[in-house]
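sorry to bug you again but im stuck and you know this stuff better than me. what follows is a protein written twice so to speak, once as letters and once as structure tokens for the fold. id like you to explain what the token line says about the fold, in plain words if possible. anything you notice is useful, everything is just below.
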Amino acid sequence: MNKKKIIVPLVLLLAIAVYFVVFYKNKNLRYIPENADAVVLIDIKKLTGQYLFSLAANPSQWSGNKSKGKSSGSLKDSGIQIPDFLQIFHIKNTKFSEWYSVLELKDSQKFIAFLKKKNFVDKGNGRFQKDQIFIMINGNYCVAGTSDLAFEDIQKKLLKTSSNPVLDADQLIHNTAGSISFISGKKIQNFSIELNDNEIEIKNNSNAEFFNSITSKLQTGNHFLDLELDKENIRNLSRFFNKSIADSSQIAYFKTTADLEQVNDTIISYEYDDNFNEVEKKTFQKIIQPNYTIDIKSDNPEKTWEYFQSKKWINSENQFTVIPFQPNQISQNKNGVAIKSTRKPVSLSPQLKENYIFIRNSALLYSSLKMLGNTEKRIISDVDYILYGNKSQDYWIKIKAKNGELPLILRW
């Protein structure tokens, strides 16, 4: 038999197989409800390709950690049908912290075994929980979320209705590892998520010249937090916490500089001696406390002060009680309000007249996060800084990791 007649069909079949495994993607997004107002989309195949390319370029990682993989299990062998696009959504009029995702299951019993191996607690009726991760299994589907409050609503609207409107992935993502989309009626605003060797970027514009300029200016400082926002940015960010606070408080400008410091905290308790006399006992513990200065400019300083008082945010000692780290001092001036920590005030950094939030990592920060596991602490300790910037209609967030021998996708 002619070898060419065999080789050509084999090459053709291989090409077809590679196309479907690597390039073909099902772009029908079936698991986003109509009342979703925000969607995070992750291109699993693109991310997998990026991982394999990074792995191929780093032979030192080829051996991997086999014992760890066997003991901990992997999503690939968990009974989950890995989607081409992972769909994570937020439902309108729910807390900002509530996010959900629906996944198809190949084997529900295998998935339950996987959850138990990961120390999820069986709450009954197909529900499982570990810390702030909630899972509900419904036949060949599972709903995962940072809350379980919307599980029933999701089950009714997505899993029991065959006529759900289906979004197309091209409406939300354009050849990047992921995207964040904000949906308001028929209007969709998309932000790309790009995973680079030492940073993650979220943006809606490819022109980074302005944001790189801000970064270079802020990196010359050494403060833990630098923040400067105008009225529009204050209004946009306050929507995540309180929709009315920006308008009601009349705040037009907000600037903050803060540092972290480890201090000794005195705890006073009382015991009784053998004669039942009360004896004061002092113990000491080390805590992380910020030192800060906040400058608030207002369109109407009197109204701003009255608003803070109406919310009972100012106590009889003129301390701003919204900030849990006392003591501080709040005072009114002709332009607005100033708040300063009294233990060790910090001078405001130079005004850039731009909109940004710059958080520089600190060993004091992640060492104090005792509720986190070793993996989470390792990831946080690897972050160099986080920067949010805005100019006109362009927005940009950068999570910059410390330079390392391996790209982020192999480190995290």
User: Anything to note?
Assistant: The chain has twelve helices and 20 strands. Residues 24-60+68-188 form one domain. The radius of gyration is 26 Å.
